[in-house]
Specification:
Helix 14 (395-414) links the parallel strand 9 (373-377) and strand 10 (418-424). Helix 3 packs parallel to helix 5 (111-126), helix 7 (155-171) runs parallel beside helix 9 and helix 9 packs across helix 12 (299-305). The strands form three sheets. This protein has an eight-stranded parallel barrel, surrounded by five helices. A two-stranded parallel sheet has the order 6-8. Strands 11-12 form a two-stranded antiparallel ribbon. The protein has 479 residues and is of the alpha/beta class. The chain has a single domain (11-472), classed as Glycosidases (TIM Barrel), CATH 3.20.20.80. The model has no long low-confidence stretch (mean pLDDT 96). The radius of gyration is 21 Å and the shape is globular. The chain has helices spanning 18-21, 44-49, 72-86, 97-100, 111-126, 142-148, 155-171, 191-195, 205-230, 252-275, 280-288, 299-305, 355-369, 395-414, 462-472; strands spanning 11-15, 90-94, 130-136, 177-181, 235-241, 245-247, 310-314, 319-321, 373-377, 418-424, 444-446, 458-460. Helices cover 39% and strands 12% of the residues. The protein binds 6-O-phosphono-beta-D-glucopyranose (BG6). The site of 6-O-phosphono-beta-D-glucopyranose has 15 residues, from loops. This is 6-phospho-beta-glucosidase. Keywords: Glycosidase, Hydrolase. Pfam families: Glyco_hydro_1. GO terms for molecular function: beta-glucosidase activity. InterPro entries: GH, GH_1_N_CS, Glyco_hydro_1, Glyco_hydro_1_AS.
Protein backbone atom coordinates (compact mmCIF):
# COMPACT_ATOMS: atom_id res chain seq x y z
CA UNK A 1 0.00 0.00 0.00
CA UNK A 2 1.22 3.46 -0.80
CA UNK A 3 0.60 6.37 1.55
CA UNK A 4 -0.13 8.73 -1.32
CA UNK A 5 -2.62 9.05 -4.11
CA UNK A 6 -2.23 10.70 -7.47
CA UNK A 7 -5.04 13.19 -8.12
CA UNK A 8 -7.90 12.47 -10.50
CA UNK A 9 -7.07 13.75 -13.97
CA UNK A 10 -3.30 13.47 -13.40
CA UNK A 11 -1.64 13.89 -16.79
CA UNK A 12 0.32 10.68 -17.39
CA UNK A 13 2.18 10.39 -20.64
CA UNK A 14 5.41 10.68 -22.54
CA UNK A 15 7.59 13.41 -24.01
CA UNK A 16 9.65 14.01 -27.14
CA UNK A 17 11.10 16.91 -29.14
CA UNK A 18 10.58 17.46 -32.86
CA UNK A 19 14.24 17.49 -33.88
CA UNK A 20 15.02 14.24 -32.07
CA UNK A 21 12.37 12.09 -33.73
CA UNK A 22 10.65 13.65 -36.76
CA UNK A 23 13.38 13.26 -39.38
CA UNK A 24 12.22 14.50 -42.83
CA UNK A 25 14.51 17.45 -42.26
CA UNK A 26 13.92 18.97 -45.67
CA UNK A 27 10.34 17.87 -46.31
CA UNK A 28 7.17 19.92 -46.20
CA UNK A 29 8.97 23.19 -46.83
CA UNK A 30 10.92 23.00 -43.57
CA UNK A 31 13.96 25.25 -43.24
CA UNK A 32 17.23 24.23 -41.67
CA UNK A 33 17.56 24.50 -37.92
CA UNK A 34 20.30 24.10 -35.36
CA UNK A 35 19.68 20.38 -34.86
CA UNK A 36 20.25 19.79 -38.58
CA UNK A 37 23.90 20.78 -38.28
CA UNK A 38 24.53 18.88 -35.06
CA UNK A 39 26.74 15.88 -35.80
CA UNK A 40 26.14 12.43 -34.36
CA UNK A 41 28.31 11.08 -31.54
CA UNK A 42 29.79 12.38 -28.34
CA UNK A 43 31.65 15.18 -30.13
CA UNK A 44 28.47 17.03 -31.06
CA UNK A 45 28.23 19.59 -28.28
CA UNK A 46 31.93 20.44 -28.57
CA UNK A 47 31.63 20.88 -32.31
CA UNK A 48 28.61 23.17 -32.27
CA UNK A 49 29.62 25.27 -29.27
CA UNK A 50 33.10 26.13 -30.54
CA UNK A 51 33.19 29.86 -31.29
CA UNK A 52 33.65 30.21 -35.03
CA UNK A 53 31.66 27.05 -35.88
CA UNK A 54 30.32 27.64 -39.41
CA UNK A 55 26.93 25.88 -39.02
CA UNK A 56 27.56 23.87 -42.19
CA UNK A 57 26.96 20.20 -42.83
CA UNK A 58 30.16 18.23 -43.44
CA UNK A 59 29.34 14.69 -44.57
CA UNK A 60 33.03 13.82 -44.92
CA UNK A 61 33.61 14.28 -41.22
CA UNK A 62 30.29 13.56 -39.55
CA UNK A 63 26.95 11.79 -39.59
CA UNK A 64 23.69 13.65 -38.91
CA UNK A 65 21.22 11.39 -37.12
CA UNK A 66 18.61 14.12 -36.59
CA UNK A 67 18.06 14.32 -40.36
CA UNK A 68 16.16 11.05 -40.25
CA UNK A 69 15.35 10.77 -36.54
CA UNK A 70 13.02 7.81 -36.19
CA UNK A 71 10.88 9.03 -39.08
CA UNK A 72 8.00 10.15 -36.87
CA UNK A 73 7.11 12.58 -39.65
CA UNK A 74 5.74 9.65 -41.66
CA UNK A 75 4.94 7.24 -38.84
CA UNK A 76 3.23 9.52 -36.31
CA UNK A 77 -0.11 7.70 -36.57
CA UNK A 78 1.44 4.34 -35.71
CA UNK A 79 3.42 5.90 -32.83
CA UNK A 80 0.51 7.79 -31.35
CA UNK A 81 -1.58 4.60 -31.52
CA UNK A 82 1.10 2.91 -29.41
CA UNK A 83 1.04 5.81 -26.93
CA UNK A 84 -2.72 5.36 -26.73
CA UNK A 85 -2.32 1.66 -26.11
CA UNK A 86 -0.11 2.52 -23.13
CA UNK A 87 -2.96 4.67 -21.89
CA UNK A 88 -1.33 8.10 -22.32
CA UNK A 89 -3.54 10.94 -21.18
CA UNK A 90 -1.09 13.42 -22.61
CA UNK A 91 1.73 13.70 -25.11
CA UNK A 92 4.34 16.42 -24.68
CA UNK A 93 5.90 17.25 -28.01
CA UNK A 94 7.47 20.26 -29.66
CA UNK A 95 6.89 22.09 -32.88
CA UNK A 96 9.90 22.69 -35.12
CA UNK A 97 9.94 26.47 -35.55
CA UNK A 98 11.56 26.08 -38.98
CA UNK A 99 8.63 23.98 -40.26
CA UNK A 100 6.36 26.96 -39.58
CA UNK A 101 8.75 29.79 -40.42
CA UNK A 102 11.55 28.16 -42.45
CA UNK A 103 13.97 31.05 -42.00
CA UNK A 104 12.36 32.52 -38.94
CA UNK A 105 11.86 36.12 -40.06
CA UNK A 106 9.11 35.66 -42.68
CA UNK A 107 5.80 37.44 -42.36
CA UNK A 108 3.72 34.47 -43.51
CA UNK A 109 3.91 30.91 -42.17
CA UNK A 110 4.47 27.76 -44.20
CA UNK A 111 1.11 26.05 -44.67
CA UNK A 112 2.62 22.57 -45.12
CA UNK A 113 4.28 22.80 -41.74
CA UNK A 114 1.10 23.95 -40.03
CA UNK A 115 -0.88 21.17 -41.72
CA UNK A 116 1.56 18.52 -40.48
CA UNK A 117 0.96 19.45 -36.84
CA UNK A 118 -2.79 19.59 -37.48
CA UNK A 119 -2.55 15.95 -38.49
CA UNK A 120 -0.51 15.08 -35.40
CA UNK A 121 -2.92 16.85 -33.03
CA UNK A 122 -5.94 15.28 -34.71
CA UNK A 123 -4.40 11.87 -34.22
CA UNK A 124 -3.78 12.62 -30.54
CA UNK A 125 -7.30 13.91 -30.00
CA UNK A 126 -8.77 10.90 -31.78
CA UNK A 127 -7.17 8.81 -29.03
CA UNK A 128 -8.19 11.30 -26.29
CA UNK A 129 -4.58 12.29 -25.73
CA UNK A 130 -4.13 15.91 -24.66
CA UNK A 131 -1.17 17.53 -26.46
CA UNK A 132 1.26 19.60 -24.39
CA UNK A 133 3.32 21.65 -26.81
CA UNK A 134 6.78 23.15 -26.36
CA UNK A 135 7.11 26.14 -28.66
CA UNK A 136 10.91 26.11 -28.76
CA UNK A 137 12.93 22.99 -27.96
CA UNK A 138 16.57 23.37 -29.06
CA UNK A 139 15.57 23.79 -32.71
CA UNK A 140 16.02 27.46 -33.61
CA UNK A 141 15.86 28.22 -37.36
CA UNK A 142 19.44 28.34 -38.62
CA UNK A 143 18.91 31.60 -40.46
CA UNK A 144 18.14 33.39 -37.19
CA UNK A 145 21.44 32.07 -35.86
CA UNK A 146 23.66 32.92 -38.80
CA UNK A 147 22.01 36.16 -39.91
CA UNK A 148 20.75 37.62 -36.66
CA UNK A 149 23.12 36.17 -34.05
CA UNK A 150 20.39 34.25 -32.23
CA UNK A 151 18.79 35.59 -29.04
CA UNK A 152 21.60 38.07 -28.60
CA UNK A 153 19.53 40.14 -31.02
CA UNK A 154 16.41 41.80 -29.67
CA UNK A 155 14.65 41.56 -33.03
CA UNK A 156 14.22 37.83 -32.46
CA UNK A 157 11.56 38.67 -29.85
CA UNK A 158 9.30 39.90 -32.67
CA UNK A 159 9.90 36.75 -34.74
CA UNK A 160 9.16 34.51 -31.78
CA UNK A 161 6.01 36.44 -30.90
CA UNK A 162 4.79 36.07 -34.48
CA UNK A 163 5.58 32.35 -34.44
CA UNK A 164 3.85 31.75 -31.08
CA UNK A 165 0.81 33.80 -32.06
CA UNK A 166 0.54 31.86 -35.32
CA UNK A 167 0.47 28.62 -33.35
CA UNK A 168 -2.14 29.85 -30.87
CA UNK A 169 -4.43 31.05 -33.67
CA UNK A 170 -4.07 27.90 -35.71
CA UNK A 171 -4.38 25.34 -32.92
CA UNK A 172 -6.68 27.12 -30.51
CA UNK A 173 -9.30 24.39 -30.76
CA UNK A 174 -6.78 21.58 -30.33
CA UNK A 175 -4.09 22.55 -27.82
CA UNK A 176 -4.75 23.85 -24.32
CA UNK A 177 -1.32 23.34 -22.69
CA UNK A 178 1.76 25.21 -23.91
CA UNK A 179 5.39 25.56 -22.79
CA UNK A 180 7.61 28.40 -23.98
CA UNK A 181 11.36 27.60 -23.95
CA UNK A 182 12.72 24.15 -23.18
CA UNK A 183 15.12 24.12 -20.19
CA UNK A 184 15.50 27.88 -20.34
CA UNK A 185 17.91 28.02 -17.40
CA UNK A 186 20.42 25.75 -19.15
CA UNK A 187 21.26 28.72 -21.38
CA UNK A 188 24.15 30.06 -19.33
CA UNK A 189 25.92 26.70 -19.47
CA UNK A 190 25.38 25.86 -23.11
CA UNK A 191 24.17 29.06 -24.80
CA UNK A 192 24.25 27.65 -28.33
CA UNK A 193 21.45 25.15 -27.70
CA UNK A 194 18.73 27.56 -26.68
CA UNK A 195 20.11 31.03 -27.35
CA UNK A 196 21.62 30.22 -30.73
CA UNK A 197 25.09 31.68 -30.23
CA UNK A 198 28.36 30.90 -28.50
CA UNK A 199 30.11 33.74 -26.69
CA UNK A 200 33.57 34.40 -28.14
CA UNK A 201 35.34 34.02 -24.78
CA UNK A 202 34.59 32.74 -21.31
CA UNK A 203 34.83 36.32 -20.00
CA UNK A 204 31.67 37.39 -21.81
CA UNK A 205 29.69 34.17 -21.40
CA UNK A 206 27.54 35.33 -18.49
CA UNK A 207 26.98 38.84 -19.83
CA UNK A 208 25.87 37.60 -23.24
CA UNK A 209 23.82 34.71 -21.90
CA UNK A 210 21.86 36.86 -19.49
CA UNK A 211 21.24 39.41 -22.22
CA UNK A 212 19.89 36.62 -24.46
CA UNK A 213 17.86 35.28 -21.55
CA UNK A 214 16.35 38.69 -20.92
CA UNK A 215 15.12 38.72 -24.51
CA UNK A 216 13.64 35.27 -24.00
CA UNK A 217 11.94 36.38 -20.77
CA UNK A 218 10.23 39.25 -22.59
CA UNK A 219 9.31 36.93 -25.48
CA UNK A 220 7.91 34.40 -23.03
CA UNK A 221 5.73 37.04 -21.32
CA UNK A 222 4.40 38.20 -24.68
CA UNK A 223 3.58 34.59 -25.52
CA UNK A 224 1.73 34.21 -22.20
CA UNK A 225 -0.28 37.32 -23.00
CA UNK A 226 -1.15 36.15 -26.51
CA UNK A 227 -1.97 32.61 -25.39
CA UNK A 228 -4.47 33.79 -22.78
CA UNK A 229 -6.04 36.27 -25.18
CA UNK A 230 -6.36 33.83 -28.09
CA UNK A 231 -7.19 30.59 -26.27
CA UNK A 232 -9.55 31.09 -23.34
CA UNK A 233 -8.93 28.50 -20.64
CA UNK A 234 -5.45 27.71 -21.89
CA UNK A 235 -2.48 27.19 -19.57
CA UNK A 236 1.05 28.13 -20.42
CA UNK A 237 4.16 27.31 -18.43
CA UNK A 238 7.88 27.84 -18.40
CA UNK A 239 10.24 24.88 -18.56
CA UNK A 240 13.24 24.51 -16.26
CA UNK A 241 16.01 21.95 -16.14
CA UNK A 242 15.73 21.34 -12.44
CA UNK A 243 18.65 20.10 -10.39
CA UNK A 244 18.43 20.68 -6.66
CA UNK A 245 21.89 21.67 -5.45
CA UNK A 246 23.38 19.94 -2.42
CA UNK A 247 26.31 21.13 -0.37
CA UNK A 248 29.08 18.53 -0.32
CA UNK A 249 29.21 18.73 3.48
CA UNK A 250 28.21 20.96 6.41
CA UNK A 251 31.17 23.31 6.03
CA UNK A 252 29.32 26.67 5.96
CA UNK A 253 31.51 27.84 3.07
CA UNK A 254 30.29 24.92 0.98
CA UNK A 255 26.69 25.43 2.09
CA UNK A 256 26.84 29.08 1.09
CA UNK A 257 28.42 28.18 -2.24
CA UNK A 258 25.71 25.58 -2.95
CA UNK A 259 23.01 28.09 -2.00
CA UNK A 260 24.38 30.64 -4.47
CA UNK A 261 24.63 28.08 -7.26
CA UNK A 262 21.05 27.09 -6.59
CA UNK A 263 19.87 30.70 -6.62
CA UNK A 264 21.54 31.57 -9.88
CA UNK A 265 20.85 28.36 -11.73
CA UNK A 266 17.36 27.52 -10.55
CA UNK A 267 15.75 30.67 -9.24
CA UNK A 268 16.59 33.57 -11.57
CA UNK A 269 14.56 32.02 -14.38
CA UNK A 270 11.89 30.73 -12.01
CA UNK A 271 11.44 34.11 -10.33
CA UNK A 272 11.18 36.09 -13.55
CA UNK A 273 8.63 33.67 -15.01
CA UNK A 274 6.46 33.19 -11.94
CA UNK A 275 6.97 36.26 -9.74
CA UNK A 276 7.44 38.47 -12.76
CA UNK A 277 10.63 40.05 -11.46
CA UNK A 278 14.36 39.52 -11.13
CA UNK A 279 15.13 38.26 -7.59
CA UNK A 280 16.79 40.43 -4.93
CA UNK A 281 20.03 38.42 -5.01
CA UNK A 282 20.44 38.92 -8.76
CA UNK A 283 21.51 42.56 -8.28
CA UNK A 284 24.68 41.59 -6.43
CA UNK A 285 25.30 38.58 -8.66
CA UNK A 286 25.08 40.74 -11.79
CA UNK A 287 27.32 43.42 -10.26
CA UNK A 288 30.01 40.99 -9.12
CA UNK A 289 30.06 39.27 -12.50
CA UNK A 290 30.12 42.40 -14.61
CA UNK A 291 26.67 41.69 -16.06
CA UNK A 292 24.67 44.64 -17.22
CA UNK A 293 21.43 43.87 -19.03
CA UNK A 294 20.17 46.27 -21.64
CA UNK A 295 16.44 46.67 -21.24
CA UNK A 296 13.84 48.74 -23.00
CA UNK A 297 11.30 50.83 -21.21
CA UNK A 298 8.30 48.66 -20.45
CA UNK A 299 10.22 45.36 -20.28
CA UNK A 300 9.95 45.03 -16.49
CA UNK A 301 6.27 45.90 -16.70
CA UNK A 302 5.68 43.21 -19.30
CA UNK A 303 7.42 40.60 -17.13
CA UNK A 304 5.30 41.59 -14.14
CA UNK A 305 2.00 41.60 -16.01
CA UNK A 306 2.24 38.22 -17.72
CA UNK A 307 3.61 35.50 -15.43
CA UNK A 308 3.25 31.82 -16.37
CA UNK A 309 0.44 29.60 -15.07
CA UNK A 310 2.62 26.69 -14.02
CA UNK A 311 6.21 25.45 -13.96
CA UNK A 312 7.20 22.46 -16.02
CA UNK A 313 10.54 20.83 -15.45
CA UNK A 314 12.93 18.15 -16.54
CA UNK A 315 14.53 16.12 -13.79
CA UNK A 316 17.40 13.73 -14.38
CA UNK A 317 19.84 14.38 -11.55
CA UNK A 318 20.75 16.45 -8.54
CA UNK A 319 23.99 18.35 -8.29
CA UNK A 320 26.52 18.43 -5.45
CA UNK A 321 28.71 21.47 -4.95
CA UNK A 322 31.92 22.21 -3.07
CA UNK A 323 33.61 25.60 -3.06
CA UNK A 324 37.13 24.40 -3.85
CA UNK A 325 37.34 21.22 -5.86
CA UNK A 326 40.09 19.24 -7.52
CA UNK A 327 39.85 17.92 -11.07
CA UNK A 328 39.37 14.34 -9.77
CA UNK A 329 36.39 15.40 -7.70
CA UNK A 330 34.39 16.58 -10.70
CA UNK A 331 31.26 14.56 -11.51
CA UNK A 332 32.24 13.97 -15.11
CA UNK A 333 28.95 12.62 -16.41
CA UNK A 334 26.49 15.16 -15.06
CA UNK A 335 25.38 17.78 -17.54
CA UNK A 336 26.48 20.52 -15.22
CA UNK A 337 29.43 19.20 -13.32
CA UNK A 338 29.67 19.60 -9.59
CA UNK A 339 31.44 17.02 -7.43
CA UNK A 340 30.69 13.31 -7.38
CA UNK A 341 28.11 12.46 -4.78
CA UNK A 342 29.42 9.41 -2.87
CA UNK A 343 25.87 8.32 -2.01
CA UNK A 344 24.64 7.99 -5.58
CA UNK A 345 25.00 5.50 -8.40
CA UNK A 346 25.26 6.76 -11.97
CA UNK A 347 23.85 5.68 -15.34
CA UNK A 348 26.02 4.26 -18.13
CA UNK A 349 26.52 7.86 -19.25
CA UNK A 350 27.58 8.97 -15.76
CA UNK A 351 24.34 10.78 -14.86
CA UNK A 352 23.81 10.40 -11.11
CA UNK A 353 20.54 8.70 -10.21
CA UNK A 354 18.68 10.36 -7.35
CA UNK A 355 14.91 9.91 -6.99
CA UNK A 356 14.93 11.57 -3.56
CA UNK A 357 16.35 14.65 -5.25
CA UNK A 358 13.12 14.90 -7.23
CA UNK A 359 11.09 14.99 -4.02
CA UNK A 360 13.43 17.61 -2.58
CA UNK A 361 13.24 19.67 -5.76
CA UNK A 362 9.46 19.53 -6.04
CA UNK A 363 9.10 20.63 -2.42
CA UNK A 364 11.56 23.49 -2.92
CA UNK A 365 9.89 24.73 -6.07
CA UNK A 366 6.40 24.55 -4.64
CA UNK A 367 7.42 26.27 -1.41
CA UNK A 368 8.92 29.11 -3.37
CA UNK A 369 6.34 29.57 -6.12
CA UNK A 370 3.01 28.02 -5.12
CA UNK A 371 2.03 27.26 -8.70
CA UNK A 372 1.30 23.78 -10.08
CA UNK A 373 4.31 21.73 -11.19
CA UNK A 374 4.48 19.43 -14.19
CA UNK A 375 7.36 16.95 -14.61
CA UNK A 376 7.65 16.91 -18.39
CA UNK A 377 10.94 14.99 -18.63
CA UNK A 378 12.46 12.20 -16.60
CA UNK A 379 13.92 8.88 -17.65
CA UNK A 380 16.92 6.62 -17.95
CA UNK A 381 19.18 6.61 -20.99
CA UNK A 382 20.51 3.04 -21.21
CA UNK A 383 21.76 0.37 -23.62
CA UNK A 384 19.01 -2.13 -24.45
CA UNK A 385 19.39 -5.67 -25.72
CA UNK A 386 16.89 -7.36 -27.99
CA UNK A 387 16.72 -11.01 -26.90
CA UNK A 388 16.50 -13.87 -29.37
CA UNK A 389 12.74 -14.07 -28.89
CA UNK A 390 12.49 -10.36 -29.68
CA UNK A 391 11.76 -9.20 -26.13
CA UNK A 392 13.50 -6.29 -24.44
CA UNK A 393 13.66 -6.77 -20.72
CA UNK A 394 14.49 -3.33 -19.43
CA UNK A 395 14.04 -3.87 -15.70
CA UNK A 396 16.69 -1.19 -15.00
CA UNK A 397 14.42 1.39 -16.68
CA UNK A 398 11.35 0.17 -14.81
CA UNK A 399 13.24 0.49 -11.51
CA UNK A 400 14.37 3.99 -12.38
CA UNK A 401 10.90 5.17 -13.37
CA UNK A 402 9.25 3.45 -10.41
CA UNK A 403 11.49 5.16 -7.86
CA UNK A 404 10.98 8.57 -9.44
CA UNK A 405 7.21 8.13 -9.63
CA UNK A 406 7.20 7.11 -5.96
CA UNK A 407 9.11 10.29 -5.15
CA UNK A 408 6.42 12.29 -6.95
CA UNK A 409 3.74 10.46 -4.97
CA UNK A 410 5.53 11.34 -1.74
CA UNK A 411 5.75 14.98 -2.83
CA UNK A 412 2.03 15.03 -3.48
CA UNK A 413 1.53 13.73 0.05
CA UNK A 414 3.92 16.48 1.22
CA UNK A 415 1.38 18.94 -0.19
CA UNK A 416 2.93 19.73 -3.57
CA UNK A 417 0.52 20.32 -6.43
CA UNK A 418 1.67 18.20 -9.36
CA UNK A 419 -0.23 18.28 -12.68
CA UNK A 420 1.38 15.40 -14.48
CA UNK A 421 4.34 13.30 -15.48
CA UNK A 422 5.61 12.62 -18.99
CA UNK A 423 8.43 10.07 -19.34
CA UNK A 424 11.18 11.40 -21.56
CA UNK A 425 11.79 9.73 -24.90
CA UNK A 426 8.76 7.46 -24.49
CA UNK A 427 9.81 6.09 -27.86
CA UNK A 428 13.55 5.70 -28.61
CA UNK A 429 14.95 8.80 -30.29
CA UNK A 430 18.23 10.58 -31.00
CA UNK A 431 20.01 11.69 -27.83
CA UNK A 432 20.31 15.43 -27.48
CA UNK A 433 23.75 15.58 -25.86
CA UNK A 434 25.49 12.72 -27.66
CA UNK A 435 23.56 12.27 -30.89
CA UNK A 436 23.39 8.54 -30.24
CA UNK A 437 20.51 6.14 -30.84
CA UNK A 438 22.11 3.66 -28.44
CA UNK A 439 21.33 5.94 -25.49
CA UNK A 440 17.74 4.74 -25.32
CA UNK A 441 15.00 6.12 -23.08
CA UNK A 442 12.01 4.51 -24.75
CA UNK A 443 9.24 2.29 -23.53
CA UNK A 444 8.97 1.55 -27.24
CA UNK A 445 12.08 0.25 -28.99
CA UNK A 446 12.98 1.54 -32.45
CA UNK A 447 15.22 -0.56 -34.65
CA UNK A 448 17.66 2.20 -35.55
CA UNK A 449 21.35 2.27 -34.66
CA UNK A 450 24.24 4.65 -34.26
CA UNK A 451 25.61 3.80 -37.70
CA UNK A 452 22.27 4.71 -39.28
CA UNK A 453 21.23 1.12 -39.99
CA UNK A 454 17.94 -0.45 -38.91
CA UNK A 455 14.45 -1.18 -40.17
CA UNK A 456 12.74 1.47 -37.99
CA UNK A 457 10.39 -1.24 -36.75
CA UNK A 458 8.73 -0.40 -33.42
CA UNK A 459 8.69 -2.97 -30.60
CA UNK A 460 7.17 -2.87 -27.12
CA UNK A 461 9.66 -3.17 -24.26
CA UNK A 462 8.84 -4.72 -20.89
CA UNK A 463 8.54 -1.16 -19.54
CA UNK A 464 5.70 -0.53 -22.02
CA UNK A 465 3.46 -3.02 -20.21
CA UNK A 466 4.63 -1.85 -16.80
CA UNK A 467 3.80 1.80 -17.57
CA UNK A 468 0.43 0.77 -19.01
CA UNK A 469 -0.39 -0.66 -15.58
CA UNK A 470 0.88 2.41 -13.78
CA UNK A 471 -1.37 4.66 -15.82
CA UNK A 472 -4.35 2.36 -15.60
CA UNK A 473 -4.11 2.32 -11.81
CA UNK A 474 -3.41 6.09 -11.66
CA UNK A 475 -0.05 5.43 -10.04
CA UNK A 476 -1.27 2.91 -7.46
CA UNK A 477 0.33 -0.16 -9.08
CA UNK A 478 4.03 0.45 -9.38
CA UNK A 479 5.38 -3.10 -8.98
C1 LIG B 1 16.90 17.26 -21.77
C2 LIG B 1 16.43 17.73 -23.13
O1 LIG B 1 17.98 18.02 -21.37
O2 LIG B 1 17.41 15.99 -21.66
C3 LIG B 1 16.11 16.64 -24.12
O3 LIG B 1 15.34 18.60 -23.02
C4 LIG B 1 17.14 15.53 -23.98
O4 LIG B 1 16.07 17.20 -25.40
C5 LIG B 1 17.06 14.96 -22.57
O5 LIG B 1 17.04 14.52 -24.93
C6 LIG B 1 18.00 13.79 -22.32
O6 LIG B 1 19.28 14.13 -22.69
P1 LIG B 1 20.13 13.22 -23.68
O7 LIG B 1 21.35 13.98 -23.93
O8 LIG B 1 20.38 11.97 -22.95
O9 LIG B 1 19.29 13.02 -24.88
Amino acid sequence: MTNYQFPEGFLWGGATAANQLEGAYLEGGKGMNLADVMPGGKVRLNVISKPGFDFKIDHDKHTYPNHDGIDFYHRYAEDIALFAEMGFKTYRMSIAWSRIFPKGDELEPNEDGLAFYDRVFDECLKHKIEPVVTISHYEMPLYLITEYGGWRNREVITFFERYATTLFNRYKEKVKYWLTFNEINGATHLPIMSLGFSPATEDVRLQESFQGLHHQFVASSLAVKACHEIIPGSQIGCMLIYMPVYSYDCNPQNVLHAMKEEQVFNFICGDVHVRGEYPAFSKRFFKENGISIEMEEGDLDTLKKYPVDFISLSYYMSRTEKKELTAEEKASGNLIAGVKNPHLEASDWGWEIDPTGLRIGLNQLYDRYRVPLFIVENGLGAYDTVEEDGSINDDYRINYLREHIKAIGESIEDGVEVMGYTAWGCIDLVSMSTGEMSKRYGLIYVDKHDDGSGTLERRKKKSFYWYQNVIESNGAKLD
